[in-house]
Design brief:
By secondary structure, the chain is of the alpha/beta class. It has 2 domains: 33 residues, no CATH class; 123 residues, Rossmann fold, CATH 3.40.50.300. 37% of the residues lie in helices and 8% in strands. The protein has 9 helices and 4 strands, in the order αααααβααβαβαβ. It has a 4-stranded parallel β-sheet, with helices on both faces. Strand 2, helix 8 and strand 3 form a beta-alpha-beta unit. The chain is elongated and about 110 Å long. This is CMS1 protein. Pfam families: CMS1. One of its GO terms (cellular component) is nucleus.
């Protein structure tokens, strides 16, 4: 009798070519194609209601809304930083002269990084005159140092990052009672083309 062999199914040769992975869209790719658009007060209002909307009541959200009188004209991308500041606070010399409070600043500039803070400090030379500017970011500067400086001296302008400013306010190192202006560095984009408000931690 002839022997019966079970035929083995032929092994398919594994293809060495891997299937192409779909390239994930990065925020920088999307932003690269969009034209720079100056920020407007409505952008901040929308951001606040988005951020607080999930865990606040309708009344609480209503209280968070800032009236139009809280806002100064935004930079329409035609101004340098100094010329923009001159336009929005023409009485700066008087404000600066009258400011004598410690632990506080008249103007608070908030931007996304320490490097950007230094850039802005350099670019406001024409505006600030001889007033004192304090760096409010974490890079190479301990929070205790900043608190000591605020306690001992009178500073007119503070330029820093959201994280450090928040920490100083929470630890009672920075008092906002005499702050007249808060400038958000809204239009500037970093290397990844993100604005400050595109960074989730902010």
């Amino acid at each position: 009798p002839t022997e019966c062999f079970l035929s083995q199914p032929e092994k398919k040769q594994e293809s060495t070519v891997k299937p192409k992975r779909r390239k994930k869209k990065k925020i920088s790719d999307i932003l690269e194609k969009s034209a720079p658009k100056p920020g407007v007060p409505e952008d901040l209002q929308n951001l606040l209601s988005q951020h607080f909307g999930e865990n606040r009541s309708v009344i609480e959200i209503e209280e968070l809304k800032l009236s139009d009188s809280c806002f100064l004209p935004a930079n329409d991308l035609t101004h340098s930083f100094s010329s923009y500041l001159k336009e929005i606070c023409p009485k700066w010399a008087k404000l600066r002269k009258n400011h004598k409070e410690k632990k506080s600043v008249v103007m608070l500039v908030i931007c996304s990084s320490a490097l950007r803070s230094l850039e802005l400090i350099k670019s406001m030379t024409a505006f600030k005159g001889d007033c004192k500017v304090l760096k409010l970011f974490a890079k190479h500067i301990k929070i205790k140092e900043q608190m000591n400086m605020l306690e001992k001296g009178v500073f007119h302008i503070g330029v820093g990052t959201p994280g450090r400013v928040k920490a100083l306010v929470e630890q009672d190192g920075l008092c906002l009672n005499s702050t007249k202006y808060m400038i958000l560095d809204w239009n500037w984009r970093d290397q990844k083309l993100r604005r400050m408000m595109d960074i989730p931690e902010v």
